[in-house]
Amino acid sequence: MSGVQSDEMLLQELAGDLAAWLRRQSELGLTTLARREAPRPAAARPSAPSERQQAAPPQSQPAQSQPPLAASSRSPAPPVASAASSATSNEAIGRRMEEFAQSVSQTLSSNRAPDAAPQRATTLAALRAQLGDCHRCPLCDDRTNLVFGEGAEHPRIMFVGDMPTADEDRTGRPLAGAEGELLTKMLQAMKLTPEQVYLTSVVKCRSNPARRPHPEEVRRCRPVLAAQIRIAQPEVIVVLGGAALAALKPDETLTAEDRGKWMELHGVPMMPTFHPTLLLQKPELKKAAWQDLQQVMKRLALS
Ligand code: SF4
């Protein structure tokens, strides 16, 4: 994937996520957003951003405490910030964001060769084709195979690990090796068929040696997972392991207590549970993992 395609994918996913967030706010009855004045630049030269600020991923799903449509001190200002009224309907802003995403796509397209890949993938296969031989983060140097994900186009459950396992990296496919065998047994116990699940990871390439994905790697790969969720529209996401959960919720302080509790990702209910690798190391945790999965089964009326 070229740099232009990568940047475009990121911008499109950001705009798409923001539009989806606004739609959800409207569904909740929050139909207007107050406009905030942009903070005036300080007279003194601002200090350099902290390491955490530099590493922080873009807020593809803005926190409610900081409405993303408030005027920003960054330039150029997004189109929505130029609204004349002090309060604008979410529906109108959502439309503006969709238009903004399209204009980004068209602008970048004008600088690209005519045989470039489609702008906004509508199928998982098209998204995979767009991703190509991705070199967007340093993990590309370590991987044997890019493990995009596999499963139903519109699954009931999407399982998300942190990064491919060693066997997945070797084969290029999820569900490989001992972890895959255990996960397969878990799916069978949940009475799920292959047509009902999709398996992927936060980052699609494995580090060597194995470690947690770095925040910058997560940030670089985030648009791919966001697009997979947008296209697949799973009913539930099951997060496998603390590393995956921390990568998906970088701005939240998470503890072991958060396992087994419903959360949300891109508007989809999300259940964190143990990673199969840990369950292989500590079989005594299988009972708790099964309780997590039973909550998912209950939500999907599988039991
Ligand atoms: S982890 Fe994601 S962003 Fe990094 S090289 Fe692999 S596919 Fe590209």
Notes on the protein architecture:
40% of the residues lie in helices and 11% in strands. It is α/β, with parallel strands linked by helices. The protein has 2 domains: 3-40 and 52-109, no CATH class; 127-299, 3-Layer(aba) Sandwich (Uracil-DNA Glycosylase, subunit E). The chain has a 6-stranded mixed beta sheet with strand order 3-5-4-6-8-7, sandwiched between helices. Helix 1 (3-27) packs antiparallel against helix 3 and helix 1 crosses helix 7. The radius of gyration is 20 Å and the shape is globular. Residues 41-87 and 105-118 have low confidence and may be disordered. The site of iron/sulfur cluster has 14 residues, from helix 7.
Quick description:
The chain is an alpha/beta fold and 303 residues long. It is 40% helix and 11% strand. Strands 3-5-4-6-8-7 form a 6-stranded mixed beta sheet, sandwiched between helices. The chain has a two-stranded antiparallel ribbon with strand order 1-2.
How widely separated are the two ends?
42 Å
Named CATH architecture of the largest domain? 3-Layer(aba) Sandwich
What is the oligomeric state here? single chain
Measured as a percent range, the helix fraction is 40-55%
Unique ligands:
iron/sulfur cluster
Strand order of the largest sheet: 3-5-4-6-8-7
Uncertain segments are 41-87, 105-118
Number of helices: 10
Q: So, the CATH homologous superfamily of the largest domain?
A: Uracil-DNA glycosylase-like domain
The CATH first-level class of the largest domain comes to Alpha Beta
Briefly note the structural class of the backbone. Answer: alpha/beta
Strand coverage percent: 5-15%
Number of domains: 2
Give me the Rg, rounded.
20 Å
For the secondary structure, the number of strands is 8
Nearest-integer average pLDDT? 77
From the 3D structure, determine the CATH topology of the largest domain.
Uracil-DNA Glycosylase, subunit E
